[in-house]
Prior knowledge:
This protein is mostly helical.
Amino acid sequence: MESYFITKTLPMIKIATIENKPFQEGIDIIGKIVSKRADLALFDEDVLKTLIQYTGGSLRDLFHVINASAKRAERRDSEKISVEDASRALEELKTY
């Protein structure tokens, strides 16, 4: 099985300084990673930024929440992920 897949460990990406101020370089890197996988126009204003902040730089958690948010938006027949979709997905993450 290992011959078919290359496994890489991805560390959490720094999104805040020790003083708890946003670390824009890390936030921008995560935004670029997401943009390679999804059209950023799918997110309502500031939704992606909120998801990045609440998942703390963990790509696994971020993509889990994006997927859950997108499913909620799809159930509403919406083409965009709303703040409400994101909030509910983040609540699910707490129990995950």
